[in-house]
Amino acid sequence: MTPEAEFYQLSGWTVILLLVLFYGGTLLMSTLIGKKKENADGYMTAGNKVGFGISAASMTATWIWASSMYASATSGYTYGISGPIHYGLWGALMILFIYPFGKRIRKVAPKAHTLAEVMHARHGRSSQLMLAGSNVVGSLISLTSNFIAGGALIALLSPFSFSQGIIVIAAGVLLYTLWSGFRASVMTDFAQVVAMLGAVVVIIPVVFFSAGGPDMFAQGAANLTPQQSNFFSSDAFLNQGAPYIAAVLAYAIGNQTIAQRLFAVREDLIKKTFVTATIGYGATIIGIGMLGVMALYLGISPSGGDTNNLIPQMASTYLGPILLGVFLIMIIGALSSTADSDLAALSSIMMADVYGQNIAKGKANPKTMLMVGRITMIVATAAALYFASGQMNILDLLVFVGALWGALVFPVIASFYWGKVTNKAFTVSVLAALAVFIPVRFEWFPMDGATGIVFDVVSVVGIGVVLGLMSFGFFGLKAARIIGALGALVAAPFAIGFLHDYTVLTGSLVAYAVSTVICFAMSVRSRQDFDFDLIKQRIGDYDTDSETDPELDATAAGTAASGTGK
Amino acid sequence: MDSTMLLTIYVLMWPVIVGGTLFMICKGFLRDWVEARREGRSII
C-alpha cells in the first residue's frame, strides 16, 4: 500500500444525483409533515409525545456524527484493537447514563423545552444562562464541524471543492429544517438512520473481505505494537477511554440535542428509546472504528498524515463505485442528522431561554417565537459556514465547553433531587471549577512535587464523584455513596503520584470534584427546601392554539396562556 | 479458537448488532405510523 493513497473519485454528476436524492428526499419528508401554521411548542419538542420508532431513530442519528466516525477509526488506528471500544462504548454510555436522570427531569418538568429553561424555573437567570450559553457554543461547534467534515469528504471523493461542498450541505440541511424545526429534524432522522445503519451493515463486511479477510490479522500482526494488540491496553484506556468516561455525564447533561429528545419522547418510552439508541450508536461507531483497526493491520498510512482521511481512504480503496456512493450517503446522513439537530437545539434555546424567558418574560407571542427560531437557524448556518470556510480549529473551544459541562454536572443533577441547592451555590461552584480547570488543563504551572500530589488527590475525589453520580441514577443515593467512596479508595493508590501526567483526564476530574465539593458545602446548611412542584407550574406551553395535553395544561394554568415565567 | 478467528468475529459482530438495532427501529417506526393513521393524526 502506498503511503499517500490516491482517492477514487465519483463523477460530478453521480455526486449531484446522490445529493439531490438525499436532500430532496429529506425535504420531501419535511414537507409532508409541515403545517401551514406551525406550533411554537411543536417546533421545539414536537408535542412531548413522540413514539418509540422515531425517537429511537432520532437519538441514534443525532448522536452519530461524522466526527465520531472519524475519531473512532483514528482511535482504532492509534490504540489498536481496543481503540474503537474506548471511543464508542463510552460515547454510547453517555446516552444510557442520562436516561434515569431524564425520567426525573421529565417528571418535574413535563412541558419543558430546554434544560436551561428548567434551571431558570428552579434557580434563576445565572444558572440558566450558563447552561444555555454552553449549549449554544457546543451546538455551533458541532454544526461547524459537521459542515467541515462534509466539505472535506466531497472534496476528497468528487471533483467539487471544499467550499462548494460546505455550501451544498449547509443549504440542504437548512432547507429541510427551517420550516418545521424539531419536527422536521426528528422525522428526517428516521430516513437518515436507515441510510447510515444500513450502510454500516454492508460496508464493514465488504471492506473486511476485500482487504483480505481473516488473513490480514495473521499477515499484519507485526504492524502492531504490544499495546496495540492488547485488548486491555493501558495506553488506550488512559489516553482515550478514561477521559471519555469522565466526560460521559458532562456531554449528556450539556447537550441540548439530547435534552430536546428527552422532552419530546413519550414519557413511558424514555428507557426503551435511550437503551436502543445506546446500542445503535455504540455498535455503529465501534464498527466504523474497525476500519481504523484494519488499516493498522494492513499497514496503511493515512493520506497526508491526517487520520481523518482514514475512513474515506479505506472506502475509496476497498469499495466499488456503487458502495462508495452508499458510503458517501452514510457520512452525509451522519453529519446532516446532527447538523439539523444542532439547528433545532439552537433555535429552541433562542426561542425559550432568550426570547421566552429573558425578553418576553411571560408574555411570549408564539408567532414571534417561531420567527426567532427560524432566524436563529439562518444566522447559525451562516456563522457555521463562516467558521467552516476558514477551516478554523474551533474544536479547541470544545475543551472549554466540555469543562463547563463537567463543572455543571453535579449542580444540575443535584438541583433536580435536592431542594437545598441554591442559585448561588450553583453559580459559584461552576465558576470555581472552571477557574481551577483551566490552569490544570493548559499546564500553566508545573505539576511536579507536592502540587501534582494535591491535584491527584482532588482527581481521586473527582473519580468518586463520577462513579457516584453514575450509580445514583440507577441505584439511588445509598448505593451511589458506597460506590463513589469505594471507587475513590480503590483508585487512590494507583492515581496519587501518577495521574497528574494525564492533564486532559486530571482537568476533567478536577472540574467534577471542585464543583461538587463547593456546591455541596454551600447547599448543605442552606435553609431553602425547594418545592419541585413549582417547576411544573412555571413551565408550560407557549402556544396553546393547537392540541395540548389538558391535564398538564391544567397544572401549568398560571403561565400556560402567555408563556413561562416565575 | 485461534486469535485470527476471534478477531474476525470481533470485527464482524458490530454490523450484525447494527442490523438488529435497525430492525427494531424500523419495526417501531412502522408501529408509530400505523397507530398515527388509525388515530387520524400526523406521525409527528
Outline the fold blueprint:
The complex is a heterodimer of chains A (566) and B (44).
Chain A: H1 12-33, H2 40-45, H3 52-63, H4 66-79, H5 83-108, H6 115-122, H7 125-157, H8 162-177, H9 182-210, H10 215-219, H11 234-254, H12 256-264, H13 270-298, H14 310-318, H15 321-359, H16 366-389, H17 397-417, H18 423-441, H19 449-475, H20 477-495, H21 503-524, H22 533-538, H23 550-555, H24 557-560
Chain B: H1 3-39
What features would you highlight for this structure?
heterodimer; A: about 575 residues; mainly alpha; Sodium/glucose cotransporter; 2 domains; about 0% strand; disordered C terminus; B: about 45 residues; 1 helix; rod-shaped
Mean pLDDT of chain A: 91
Count of folded domains of chain A: 2
| Chain-averaged pLDDT of chain B | 95
| Strand-residue proportion of chain B | under 5%
Q: How much helix is in the residues of chain A?
A: over 70%
Please provide the count of β strands of chain B. 0
In CATH, the topology of the largest domain in chain A is named Sodium/glucose cotransporter
Helix/strand structural class of chain A? mainly alpha
H/I helix tally of chain B: 1
Notes on the protein architecture:
The complex is a heterodimer of chains A (566) and B (44). Chain A has 566 residues and is mainly α. Chain A folds into two domains: 375 residues, Sodium/glucose cotransporter (Up-down Bundle), CATH 1.20.1730.10; 132 residues, no CATH class. Helix content of chain A is 75%, strand content 0%. Chain A has 24 helices and no strands. In chain A, helix 3 runs parallel beside helix 13 and helix 4 packs across helix 13. The C terminus of chain A is likely disordered. Chain B is mainly α. Chain B has a domain of 30 residues. The longest helix of chain B is centred in the middle third of the chain and has 37 residues. Chain B is built from one helix and no strands. The mean pLDDT of chain B is 95. At the A-B interface, helix 3, helix 9, helix 10 and helix 13 of A face helix 1 of B.
